[in-house]
Automatic annotation (TrEMBL):
Organism whose genome encodes this protein: Marinitoga aeolica
Domain Radical SAM core: 73-293
Source taxonomy: Bacteria, Thermotogati, Thermotogota, Thermotogae, Petrotogales
4Fe-4S found in the keyword field: yes
Gene that specifies this protein: hydE
Family matches, as InterPro entries: Aldolase_TIM, BATS_dom, Elp3/MiaA/NifB-like_rSAM, FeFe-hyd_HydE_rSAM, HydE/PylB-like, rSAM, rSAM_sf
Entry cofactors: [4Fe-4S] cluster; [2Fe-2S] cluster
Keywords of this entry: 4Fe-4S, Coiled coil, Iron, Iron-sulfur, Metal-binding, S-adenosyl-L-methionine
Coiled-coil ranges (or none): 1-28
One Pfam family here: Radical_SAM
Name of protein: [FeFe] hydrogenase H-cluster radical SAM maturase HydE
Amino acid sequence: MMNISKRLERLKIKLIELKKEMPLEINEVIDYFLKHMTLNYEKVLWILSLNEENLKEKIYKVADIVNKTLNTDIVTLKGVIEFSNYCKKSCYYCGIRVQNDIIKRYRIPIDEIFEIAKNGVESGLTTIILQSGEDDFYSDDDLEKLIFRIHHELKTAVSISIGERSKEAYKRFRNAGASKVLLKHEAINRKIFEDVHPDKDYDLRIELLDYLVELGYITGSGNIIGLPGQTLEDIAKDIIFMKEHNIKMIGMGPFISTHNTPLENLENGSAELTLNAYAATRLTIPFAQMPATTALGTIDRNYQFKALNCGCNVIMVNLTPDEYRENYNIYDEKIKVDLLGTAQRILDMGLKIPPYTLRNLFIKEAQYGFSNERL
Ligand code: SF4
């Protein structure tokens, strides 16, 4: 892969060329980006507010060029194992909140989690994400050993998405081999955050997030688009917050109303606005890993793939066995993002997946129709 200065040079040439076909307003964004390699709050807000189809497509194109020139046109596939749907918290939007007594709860035994991870790595995935509700059933010791085994025995990157564990626990997990962590801030507007998080853990969340960055994790965060009372200004502030706090992985998904939760009657967040947010974020935090989220795919699968041409460069595929997965309903109708189907569709779009992933998929699923030419 080209070094960063070469990629930046190439990007500059492409954007200057692109300006010839862009209207004045878009060129103002490009000029700002070329000068600062990021956007400010006003520019982010302007992109979020775009409604006109023509302008939206143009800004998506700018974000796409920035992403694919700086980060390549390879879409990274990461495997998620949702190992427990128990949670002690009560977030108003979430289907596995502790008060939801109509869902069937499960916990996957540690050895089984390892076997699922092994299968994911053999299928070509290079990052395993361990995700769960906030579930103290698994001790810090349990998780530390599991992370160590997955990282060292399977020689793969481990990402954790398990909520607000103690600082000490996160330090142990980091030493055990976890290199990435996801802790969404959900909303940087305190009132919006506290209106949907009855334990009002806003300060703790931000403090922990900063600590994770300090510990050397590649730290992920993100927001929900469409929370009650949220304005475009709030979303712009979410994006600027992530820039200022050195967030390197960004998960932004639309709110999806979920039955038997306090927000079950709220309208879903906008898929269109989510795409605008992806484009704005790519231009604000150009090197970020940014998944085209499952939440967006749940609203409209086509939008999830379209997002790969609007600045997103990651898709998370689901490794959770079906018997468990159907009960990991953090929101209603959560889709299953399967590895093979997703890889196939990415290739059909003319995009690439990492050679290691493609090779292993080819070996494992030769009958699925992947071509040697793509290796
Ligand atoms: S959003 Fe996370 S912490 Fe909140 S209830 Fe759901 S699983 Fe638990």
